[in-house]
Write a structure and sequence with these properties.
heterodimer; A: 117 residues; mainly alpha; 5 helices; 80% helix; 0% strand; extended; B: 235 residues; 73% helix; globular
Chain lengths: 117, 235
């Protein structure tokens, strides 16, 4: 593919719009003045809510298979999620929880299709 | 600086697993569309948005209009609108604030939320910059590798991106354990609204409506929720 300025412009647009979206809260509430208390309270409650939405976002593929019947890979996801949760409640060590869940997931998505036909 | 990196690096390990391999996947897609690793490097340096980078490749190939590109970016990345809200006051105290804003991806946002949760006084705030820049370096390295090596990688890494899902789950659990009174209700609501929106709006369009509904709920909840004792860090 030869170099094209048009593509560079498209990339620049994507970069600028992405940055602006991330910067809007700072443009509104940045500056010298403090954030109003009302907004601060909302901002303080948001992370847990957003994280819950992101978890669902990661699981969207598996959740949708509920509609189309049973899926072997989704079984791996459920098992790995249980492992992550239990290991984390037990050890409270982020890296151990993530590593054990990921290993279980990677093994299961390879092994389960062989076991369940 | 060494101390800050020592604090930052372990926190970024889950993102490393996710970003390197997702980056490779994206690099392969880009290379197959006819753009080499130099393009991969610059796009990952300047755009730095996972899902949008996947979306933009076919749009680049078909040379869509600038307006289409801008509107698509707006929709795909609109969720980022809400991330900054939690960090407005904190980032003001960081020298590299513009870069912190630029680097506020889903994953860096999550890691920083985790840091804030375990360290409410933000004693380690200076290390946040290193978290942000390490995360981006994984993404850039992955993208370039993917574009260079393509499908010649020796091992099948399918599934390693589960690390990202696990990261979000762990951070969510920590938030709920550390402050159940505040976080459990909003988390349950966020989860319910996302699941319902997923089935109502479909996989392509559900993220924005679920975030809008969740933010509205959090606003209403904040009107009734009272922090005990008046102290900022009271449980």
């Amino acid at each position: 593919m030869q170099f094209s300025w048009y593509t560079v412009i498209l990339i620049a647009i994507t970069a600028v719009v992405t940055f602006l979206l991330r910067a809007i809260p700072f443009m509104i509430f940045g500056g010298g003045k403090q954030m109003p208390d009302r907004v601060k309270k909302v901002a303080d409650l948001l992370p847990a809510a957003i994280m819950a939405v992101l978890v669902v976002y990661c699981l969207k593929g598996d959740l949708l298979t509920i509609q189309s019947g049973f899926n072997v890979a989704s079984l791996g996801t459920v098992a790995a999620l249980i492992v992550v949760t239990l290991v984390h409640l037990w050890k409270r060590n982020t890296l151990i929880s993530i590593a054990s869940g990921t290993v279980v997931y990677m093994v299961l998505i390879r092994v389960l299709p062989l076991l369940i036909k | 600086m060494k101390k800050k990196i020592k604090y930052a690096f372990p926190k970024t390990l889950p993102v490393m697993c996710g970003y390197i391999f997702l980056g490779i996947a994206w690099g392969i897609v880009l290379a197959e569309a006819g753009y080499n690793f130099i393009w991969a490097f610059f796009i990952s340096c300047f755009v730095y948005a996972g899902s949008m980078q996947f979306t933009m490749v076919p749009l680049m190939v078909s040379a869509v209009s600038p307006v289409t590109m801008a509107v698509t970016t707006l929709f795909v990345n609109s969720r980022h609108l809400f991330y900054g809200l939690s960090f407005v006051e904190s980032f003001k105290k960081i020298k590299q604030m513009p870069y912190m804003i630029f680097g506020l991806t889903d994953e860096t946002y999550s890691v920083l939320c985790g840091c804030k949760n375990e360290d409410p006084d933000e004693k380690n705030r200076e290390a946040w910059f290193w978290i942000t820049i390490l995360d981006q370096s994984y993404w850039v390295i992955g993208s370039v590798l993917g574009a260079l090596l393509g499908e010649f990688l020796p091992f099948d890494f399918t599934g390693i991106d589960f690390a990202m899902t696990a990261l979000f789950v762990v951070i969510l659990i920590e938030q709920m354990l550390s402050n159940p009174k505040k976080n459990v209700a909003v988390a349950v609501f966020g989860m319910l609204s996302a699941v319902i929106c997923l089935f109502v709006f479909g996989v392509e369009k559900f993220l924005l409506p679920s975030l809008l509904i969740t933010v509205t709920f959090v606003f209403v909840f904040s009107l009734f929720y009272k922090e005990k004792g008046g102290s900022k860090n009271a449980v």
